[in-house]
Amino acid sequence: MGRPSFPHQHFRSFNRALTPEKALSFARHTMGLDFLAITDAVSDIRRLEWTSLVEAVRRYTQDGEFAAFAGFEFYSTEKEGKLLQRLDRNVIYRDPDSAQLPEGMGLEDYYPQDSEALLSKVDPARALIIPHQHP
Is pLDDT above 70 for 1? Predict the structure, then answer.
């Protein structure tokens, strides 16, 4: 290993035709990357798409060759009066068996939540939670 890698990739936000398999194949075979985490906007992910993503991650991960990770980008809605009104976080699960789309965070049941809600629903022993802001 030792090739450069991107920390995360949105695929649904930019191109509804791009599948997890295509994104992972491109990262591994075309770009020669060591790993890729697919972390689309949590409010855009359907449950069936989540299941497909987790299965693709399972298929594309090969020990010592390529690591694929399932995750999502969480957009917080912080309470008034806090310094930051919005603090995004990338949630990247350590393995496919740990990956789950928490209740209230998929397209079918999404509702705005703050950072405390995210931390109450995602076990930090099973996922890396990275503060992240878009410019």
Answer: no
Q: How far is CA 63 from CA 22, 66, 67, 85, 124, in A?
A: 20, 7, 7, 40, 23
**Strand 35-41 vs strand 67-75: parallel, antiparallel, or unpaired?**
parallel
Q: Residue 14: which pLDDT band, with cuts at 50, 70 and 90?
A: very low
Question: Could you give the 3-state DSSP secondary structure of residue 83?
Answer: coil
Ramachandran sector of residue 81 (left: φ over 0; alpha: ψ -120 to 50; beta: rest): left
For the chain, what are the domain ranges?
20-132
CA distance 96 to 68: 9
The pLDDT of residue 15:
55
Does the predicted model carry a pTM greater than 0.90?
no
Instruction: Kindly give the pairing relationship between strand 88-93 and strand 67-75.
Output: antiparallel
